[in-house]
Give the backbone structure.
Amino acid sequence: MNVPWWTCLWIILLGACQSEGPPAVITSTSPEQGPAYIEENKQASHIESGDIDNYIRRHRLRPRSTGSGVYHQLVRDLPGDTARPGQWAVVNFRMELLNGKVCATSAKDAPERFLIEMDDVESGLHEGIQHLSPGDSALLILASHRAYGLIGDLDQVPMRSTIVYHIGLVALEVPDR
């Protein structure tokens, strides 16, 4: 009996593709656990607010709070129009944690750019930059929910971390249409 090679291959492939049944379903937490998670998150937010207040007091800052988890204090305030959504913000920055650990900086003589309200940067940065005009520099404090959230950036920023930006707005550019 002479069986063609492609028939043997077909039988082997079919056998290799069989599964042991339907894949396991991953269920979420039970409804009873919801209130416990909500309470835990409230406590974490309360602790974070205290940490931010301590940072402000320790550094003798007087920032303005937007009420949404973004604090800003101008270091240099030059006259001019403030940044608006849809403009490119060209910035020099140093990003650090409340303990002073530097997580990221713009390269010397090579500012970073992002499209305000449209680029993939922290939501608090989009809000904070709109308080600056070209030439201004500021200190921005972003609560974790306005920065990298519950999981951090999986590299330099730990989970639920408040971020401090030392930022200078070099220029505003209008996007090409």
User: Anything to note?
Assistant: The longest strand covers residues 163-173. The chain has three helices and seven strands. The chain has one domain: 38-173. Residues 90 and 113 are 4 Å apart (CA to CA).
